[in-house]
From TrEMBL:
The lineage of its organism: Bacteria, Bacillati, Bacillota, Bacilli, Bacillales. Gene3D superfamilies: Ribonuclease Z/Hydroxyacylglutathione hydrolase-like. It comes from Cohnella rhizosphaerae. One of its GO terms (cellular component) is cytoplasm. It comes from the Bacteria. This is MBL fold metallo-hydrolase.
Length: 222
């Protein structure tokens, strides 16, 4: 399995020749023209037009960027959480995507013969409160946004966890589940603190990828 860091929270995960593009924000000027990449982008959405899947963790523009998505082929399957409120689904439909796969929590989805993704809901949601699997009814005594998800990629005996913007409360509570079901984590991509994405903490090494000349880095998971 390989993890290739691109920009901000954008990451490419690959195993068995199947590539999953996570949270592609590859343009500038989101949030009403206030957010830009620095150093400037040296990659474009079109560089990833041949990926096999796109995973969108949540609705914020630095993770779900309509301009980036409209420049990618709309036949690529998009993986999202199975939220009760289908705001992410609606935006993807507006972008023209034909295959939107809504994943149920605690049910790994097969991407290849030995490559799976599992998506867990965030924001301190307790599904027992409302009977839904994902963040739709927060606990009343906690501040929550009911937005974020994390992704667990597994294959070839390796486990990669991408927590992107998930609050510490979710990642801490998910550790027991992940260890019980997967036994270990080989690569952990997490947010550093509020307002900073996993780009600040990814440790990258190994051979150079075709995108290395553009500033992207790749980490083989041995």
């Amino acid at each position: 399995m390989k993890v290739q860091y691109l920009k901000s929270a954008s990451v490419l995960v690959e195993h068995e020749g199947v590539r999953v593009l996570c949270d592609p924000w590859l343009t500038d000027g989101i949030y009403y023209g206030s957010w830009y990449h620095y150093p400037p982008l040296e990659i474009t959405p079109e560089d990833f037009s041949d990926v096999d899947y796109i995973y969108i963790s949540h609705v914020h523009p630095d993770h779900l960027d309509p301009e980036t998505l409209r420049r990618l082929p709309d036949h690529i399957p998009v993986l999202i959480a199975n939220y009760k409120d289908r705001f992410v689904h609606r935006i993807l439909k507006q972008c023209g995507f034909e295959q939107i796969i809504e994943l149920q929590g605690h049910h790994p989805y097969r991407l290849a013969d030995d490559f799976y993704i599992e998506v867990l809901g965030a924001d301190f949601c307790d599904p027992a409160l409302c009977g839904h699997a994902f963040a739709c009814q927060p606990e009343p005594d906690r501040v929550t946004y009911a937005l974020d998800t994390l992704a667990i990629f597994s294959g070839g005996g390796k486990v990669v966890v991408n927590t992107n913007d998930c609050p510490f409360g979710l990642t801490a509570s998910a550790c027991k589940y992940i260890l019980n079901h997967y036994g270990k984590v080989d690569f952990f991509a997490r947010r550093l603190c509020r307002g900073r994405t996993l780009s600040a903490v990814l440790r990258t090494s190994g051979r150079r990828s075709p995108f290395a000349k553009r500033g992207a880095k790749e980490t083989p998971i041995h």
